[in-house]
Amino acid sequence: MPRVVVHVMPKPEILDPQGKAVAGALPRLGFEGIASVRQGKRFELEVEGAVTDEVLATIREAAATLLSNPVIEDVVQVEVEGEAAH
Amino acid sequence: MRIGVVTFPGTLDDRDALRAVRIAGAEAVPLWHGDDDLQEVDAVVLPGGFSYGDYLRAGAISRFAPVMEKVVDAAKGGIPVLGICNGFQILCETHLLPGSMIKNAHRSFICRDQPLRVENNRTAWTTAYEKDQVIRIPLKNQDGQFVADAKTLDELEGEGRVVFRYTEGATHGPVGFEENPNGSWNGIAGITNEYGNVVGLMPHPEHAVESGFGPDEPGRGTRTGTDGLGFFTSVLTALTA
């Protein structure tokens, strides 16, 4: 089954407490030189049939409606696995 | 008067909310997330907890529960709706209220008796209070940091829609969070819609309605606090007006 991957990230102006926690843990474990971390979400959607423009439009709508909250998050990428569809 | 309290999978505080409604003198009506029926209630409380395990985002899945479609319609029709903690998060996800909650800025769960300043006592849920009165009710959350874009914050502030703001006087908390317990922008604890019928806040009035079971009141004794009862008496006033 073809797979569409949706990437959601916290908006740049919103503090990301989880990313901050990860950034704080890295030097404690000896991983040096990383200035900052932001943590997002990756959704893998398996599609019945071919990934047409209609299917992508539906997925983009789902991404804006349910997978992300536009107040605090941006859908940064929707890609068909294997090829970038931005 | 019939006041409904919605139970979602993972709701924790529905029974306390039902009890608060009864103590205030109204009929408490349990509502179920999977029913598309509000049972002719006059007002609705969305209680606290971790509905759907906070999966995806707090409140994100609950928003699409069958009962919520009816709650949103009823709220737009003017009936009073109160969202407490997870209920506030659900109201933001439905866009009945603007903004959103993200994780506490200090990244820890916080639980304490929290002083709040009542900044708007004209909503359906706050007429029992004086403007600028400081009340003390329990606060307990992980994702309690209220955020919104600058335009929304300006509107909320300019239109007097900040109902509660965190204020000093808590007995403990992480360093830097003595007053504002979670880093909420502008110290916002609760807000209302433009009509004053929909109110959401992170702290828990339903846990402060009966002496012996409420927050500690400095100088007045342990567990004596009943400052939350005014939410439920206010809505009765609004409904009988």
- Helix-strand pattern of chain A: EHEHE
> Biggest β-sheet of chain A: count, sense, barrel?
3 strands, antiparallel
Shape of chain B: globular
Structural class of chain B: alpha/beta
Main beta-sheet annotation of chain B? 9 strands, mixed
Pair with the most extensive interface?
A-B, 13 and 19 residues
Distance N terminus to C terminus of chain B? 12 Å
Helix content estimate of chain A? 25-40%
Mean pLDDT of chain B: 96
Structural class by SSE content of chain A: alpha+beta
The amount of beta strand of chain B, in percent, is: 15-25%
Give the CATH class of chain A.
Alpha Beta
Number of helices of chain A: 2
Give the averaged pLDDT of chain A, no decimals.
92
Number of strands of chain B: 11
Level-2 CATH architecture of chain B: 3-Layer(aba) Sandwich
Note the total helix count of chain B: 5
CATH class of chain B: Alpha Beta
Oligomer: heterodimer
Q: Identify the CATH homologous superfamily of chain B.
A: Class I glutamine amidotransferase (GATase) domain
Organism (chain B): Brachybacterium phenoliresistens
GO cellular component, one term (chain B): cytoplasm
GO molecular function, one term (chain B): glutaminase activity
Keywords (chain B): ATP-binding, Cytoplasm, Glutamine amidotransferase, Hydrolase, Ligase, Nucleotide-binding, Purine biosynthesis
List strands and helices in order, with pairings:
The complex is a heterodimer of chains A (86) and B (241).
Chain A lengths: L2 E8 L6 H12 L12 E6 L6 H15 L5 E8 L6
Antiparallel strand pairs in A: 1-2, 1-3
Chain B lengths: L1 E6 L6 H11 L2 E6 L10 E4 L19 H11 L4 E4 L1 H8 L6 E3 L7 E9 L15 E8 L3 E3 L2 H9 L3 E5 L21 E5 L5 E4 L27 H12 L1
Parallel strand pairs in B: 1-2, 1-3, 3-4, 4-11
Antiparallel strand pairs in B: 5-8, 6-7, 6-9, 9-10, 10-11
Helix pairs in contact in B: 1-5
Catalytic activity (chain B): L-glutamine + H2O = L-glutamate + NH4(+); N(2)-formyl-N(1)-(5-phospho-beta-D-ribosyl)glycinamide + L-glutamine + ATP + H2O = 2-formamido-N(1)-(5-O-phospho-beta-D-ribosyl)acetamidine + L-glutamate + ADP + phosphate + H(+)
Keywords (chain B): ATP-binding, Cytoplasm, Glutamine amidotransferase, Hydrolase, Ligase, Nucleotide-binding, Purine biosynthesis
Subcellular location (chain B): Cytoplasm
